[in-house]
Amino acid sequence: MKLARDIRVAYVEALIQLQEQFWREALMIAQAEYPEMFASLDPESVKADSVRTSCDRYYNGQRKNKHYGIFFRVPGMEGVTVGIGIDERIYTGISCDEETQPDNYRRCQTLLSELDDDYLYDAWWPLYRYPLPDFNFREPTAEALDTLVDSDARKKMVRSYIDELFRLWRMAAG
Hints:
The chain is an alpha+beta fold. The protein has one domain. 51% of the residues lie in helices and 12% in strands. A 4-stranded antiparallel β-sheet has the order 1-2-3-4.
């Protein structure tokens, strides 16, 4: 049993390191490719100096261990951000509280009609989706692990997520 526990601890540590690389690459790509968007990084976002702590909490069951990510404020739209976040899986989209920002929420919802993609919505996210391939960081598939371990494949995936955020950010900013 001790060996099984040691293997599990090593596996979780490897997942933490892979997720940490994912977030660091997302921050670096956003900063390098889209400096205008990066300048609007929301203070609640994961930062380079806090990524490891967030990833540790995610896997080790501490409070506030889910629903973090990288979010960018949309200029001219109070309470609206575009972001890439994590619950069990990675999601991307536009966040805005329907109750406190109803006009901005409705404005974001109209973007749905302009997009051909498979976006969903709820009271906090007028537009979001779980992009493919489906990355469950808690229990990744063999395919997901292959992508995460391959640095070129991971960077390509992360870049596609950041490119999507920039597209949404520009659309929302009008």
